Amino acid sequence: MSDPVHHPFVSIRVRPARLELAQLRLWELGASGLEERDETTLVCEAASDQVVLIGAFSDEAAARHALKEIGEEYDAEIIYVPSQDWATEWRRGFSAQRIGKRLLLHPSWEAVQGEPDDVVLTIDPENAFGSGDHETTRLVLRLLDQWVAGGERVLDVGCGSGVLSIAALRLGAASAIAVDIDEDAVVVARRNAEINGVAERIEASARPLQDIDGAYDIVLANIETRVLVHMPEPLQGRLAAGGILILSGILRAETDELLAAYAPMRLEECVEEGEWCACLLRPAEP
Fold first, then answer.
1. Could you read off the pLDDT of 59-81 as tens digits, one per residue?
2. Are 115 and 57 in contact (CB under 8 A)?
């Protein structure tokens, strides 16, 4: 019997504070799937203060190109898994998860039986950030579960997979505009909208934020603090009267910097998970 073909992964070790940046970098380099691992899975002797991030690539050449590009930024290496184990290994880290009181996220390969009041979302991890596996996404979903009452107009800036817009629509929002500078993310967001039955109520595109007209009851931006601090005027300018602005991708240590950039908006709520937080802001009262 011939030896099985081995599938290439790029494994990197990264501190939790840089995890999201590393994920985005691997997506940019062509990863077909990402998963956080610990020392018991595929990778041995992982440092206790670091996360092991695994990126799957289509072939050896793609993996080696990614390793060359990312090797100067992180402790990285290529590892291999027999091809017959690839689907099982890659999918093992993604399973159904409950977020807030109503949301139940699951990948398409895992059937779920929700409760009568559950809002079920089918989101697969793909080449677009936002499958619900990262704290920054979960934090926004928690806020949406709490704050979407029904009928809202939503603007999702940096939409990635579209999970936030889709969740808002499934929770009862009336419509959503989802934008991302990555054309691949737009394709993924449209496909996820179809899967979740909200395609007719969402407009996903790569239009620049400055080209988006109208006023929105909920404006979402799950990006990074270093980007968000330069966006207060365009984001605030698209809020409807009485609207809310939800920002995520913020390290807890960066909260004061973020709030200073958005002053005089009022912090209504801040939710935290691990080293991350998401802030819900309202316009300052007259």
1. 888 888 888 888 888 888 888 76
2. no
CATH number at residue 37: 3.30.70.120
What's the rounded Cα separation, in Å, for the pair 286 and 201? 34
Q: Which helix (H) or strand (E) holds 219?
A: strand 216-222
- Is residue 22 helix, strand or coil? helix
DSSP assigned state of 59: S
How many structural domains comprise the chain?
2
CA trace torsion 91, 96, 97, 101 (10° rounding): 160
- Of 128, 130, 110, nearest to 120 (Cα)? 110
User: How is residue 244 written in tokens?
Assistant: 């809310």
This prediction has a pTM of 0.73
Pair of tokens at residue 54: 């695994």
Q: Are residues 258 and 178 in the same domain?
A: yes
| Positions of the chain with pLDDT lower than 50, given as ranges | 1-4, 39-47, 84, 86-87, 90
Do 84 and 142 lie in one domain? The reply is no
As a whole number of angstroms, the distance between CA 269 and CA 246 comes to: 9
User: Distance between CA atoms of 144 and 160, rounded to whole angstroms?
Assistant: 17
- Say how far apart CA 175 and CA 278 lie, in whole Å: 22
Question: Where would I find the beta strands (DSSP E) of 112-213?
Answer: 119-122, 153-157, 175-179, 202-205
Q: What is the pLDDT of residues 113-154, one digit of tens each?
A: 777 888 988 887 665 555 566 788 999 999 999 999 999 999
Q: Take residue 36 and report the two structure tokens written for it.
A: 């956080």
The 3-state DSSP class for residue 49 equals coil
36 lies in a domain?
yes
Query: Would you say residue 182 lies in a domain?
Result: yes
Q: Identify whether residues 81 and 159 lie together within a single domain.
A: no
Write out the H or E segment, with its range, that includes residue 35: strand 33-37
With respect to residue 114, please indicate whether it lies within any of the assigned structural domains. no
* Range(s) of the domain holding residue 159: 132-282
